[in-house]
Each structure stands twice: as structure tokens, then as C-alpha cells.
Amino acid sequence: MDKASSEQIEKIARLACIGESTSEIVHELRNVLAAISGFTQLLSGVEKGQQQDKYIRKLLAAVDRCNQIAKNILEFTQGGEARKERQDLRGIIIKALRSKSSVFVFDNIKVSTHLPDRSLEVIASDFQLHQVVFNIIINAHYELLKVEHKVFVIRGFKQDDRAIVEFTDSGKGIPERNLEKVFEPFFTTKHEGEGTGLGLSISRNIVEDHGGRLWARSEEGHGATFVLELPLVSHEPEAGMTPEPQRLKQEVYS
Ligand SMILES: Nc1ncnc2c1ncn2[C@@H]1O[C@H](COP(=O)(O)OP(=O)(O)OP(=O)(O)O)[C@@H](O)[C@H]1O
Ligand SMILES: [Mg+2]
């Protein structure tokens, strides 16, 4: 079978998969829209102040959620090639973290990043990798809201010719029997209206399409770690130069 027909078949399989889940996805979207409508009504009846800020934050989170669902569905159905260029993986991680940093502060989550001083250069679509990192971050955020001790640590380093990034949260963790299942499309343990179960399956597809791997390890009750591994752009050290030792930088958000 040629490449075009096998891609076509894969696309049809994805559409069929979405087709089977249409009612859940529509239900999910309607729940978020109901939340938006509810908070808008509440907003119109409150004075300016803390209560108003709270409703606005909830509204914005609900809009974010709709966008994320839409993006994930598009990505899942269309898949396909995205433009890949040299990227510094550190920049993608920092950008994704920044977009959630005020929420982390608000929710009392301590975030620390340990990234090397020198770039982690990979060939990638920054849009797609941002989506992977963002999916991992929002999952961790969701889990951390359920526990008292809220810590999220991101550690990036080079290992041979690979860039490795570990995202570790202090949430409840994942039971061993689900460590692989979490990457299946539509697997979710979230309540109705809170998750479609697409985030990690899309993320793994994207990472594998970049020649990398994405997996999870966890000890139930002791948090979860998602490990992202990508091939590094190879750098030939110049003659007579020894590579600088890698130092780790710590950046604490809250
Ligand atoms: N950091 C984590 N700690 C514990 N469980 C997790 C973590 N991240 C993911 N999971 C588990 O993996 C499941 C699947 O995650 P995935 O991101 O694919 O879907 P979702 O978050 O449920 O929904 P969606 O991402 O589509 O909104 C989650 O429902 C949860 O059970
Ligand atoms: Mg998710």
C-alpha cells in the first residue's frame, strides 16, 4: 500500500473513532458552555470586587477548556504533517508554564523548573510540542487540586543524543494497571464534562511522529512522572573544545 492510501485509511479510522464518541464530546462541550452561561449570569448580578474576579477567572478557564477540546479534536482527526524546525525545547516548556503561572500561584502550587544552561535543540513543530507540554501541565494541575501538598517539578537534561524532560507532580499518582491505558484515546478518569481522554493519546502520537517517546511512571499515592524523550539535533564539538559541563538552573514560580 502506498503512503497516501495508508494515511487516508488512518484518517478514516480516526474519524470513525471520533464518530463513535460524538455524543460524549458534544455533551462535554455543552457542559462547558452551560458553565460559561451560568457564570455570565452570576457576573451580571455582582459588584466589582473579589467575587467578580472569581467568576471572570472561571469564565476564562471554561473558554480555555473549549479551545483545548476544539484543538485536540482537530489534531486527532487531522493528524498529519506539521512544519518542523529547530527549536529549543526549554523555550517551549517555559512558554507553556508561563501561560499557567498565575493559576499555579492562585492555587498554591509550587512549581520548580530545572533546565540546563545550554539549549536542548530538537527538530520539531513548536505548535505541536507546546500542545504536548500543555496537555501534561493541565493534567498535573487537575490532579494537584485534589491533594494538600502541591508540588510540580520539571527537570530537563541531555542523555546521550536525546533530550529528556520529566514532569513530576505530587498528586495521587496512577495505578500500575493504568500506566499504559492513560495513552489510549478516550481513556479518562475525569468526571463527566471534565475530560475527553484525548490529551495524552494525541501527545504520544505527536511525540512519536517527532521520533521520540512519551511514557508515565508512578507509584500510586506518590505522584506521577511523565517523561518526554526527543532526539537532539547533533552538534559536532569544534576541534580543541571540550563541551561545557551542564549546570542546572532553578526557576521557582511560586
Ligand atoms: N498527572 C497525572 N496524575 C494522575 N493521573 C493522570 C495524570 N495525567 C493523566 N492522568 C490520567 O490519565 C487520564 C487520561 O489523560 P488525558 O490527558 O489523555 O485525558 P483527560 O485529561 O482525561 O481528558 P482531556 O485531556 O481530553 O481533556 C486522565 O483522565 C487521568 O486518569
Ligand atoms: Mg488531559
Describe the protein.
It contains 6 helices and 8 strands. The protein has helices spanning 3-20, 22-44, 50-78, 89-106, 126-144, 199-209, and strands at 85-88, 110-116, 121-124, 151-159, 162-169, 213-218, 224-231, 248-252. With 254 residues, it is an alpha+beta fold. It is globular. 26% of the residues are buried. Strand 4 (151-159) and strand 5 (162-169) form a beta hairpin. The strands form 2 sheets. A 6-stranded mixed β-sheet has the order 6-7-5-4-2-8. A two-stranded antiparallel sheet has the order 1-3. It has 2 domains: 1-80; 84-254, Heat Shock Protein 90. Bound molecules: adenosine-5'-triphosphate (ATP) and magnesium ion. The site of adenosine-5'-triphosphate (ATP) has 22 residues, from helix 5 and helix 6.
In percent terms, what proportion of residues is strand? 15-25%
The CATH homologous superfamily name of the largest domain equals Histidine kinase-like ATPase, C-terminal domain
Query: What percentage of residues falls in helices of 4 or more residues?
Result: 40-55%
Listing every helix as H and every strand as E from the N terminus to the C terminus, the arrangement reads HHHEHEEHEEHEEE
Named CATH architecture of the largest domain: 2-Layer Sandwich
Structural class of the helix and strand makeup? Answer: alpha+beta
Could you describe the largest sheet, including whether it forms a barrel?
6 strands, mixed
Tally of helical segments: 6
The ligands bound in this entry are:
adenosine-5'-triphosphate, magnesium ion
Q: What's the CATH class label of the largest domain? A: Alpha Beta
What gross morphology would you assign? globular
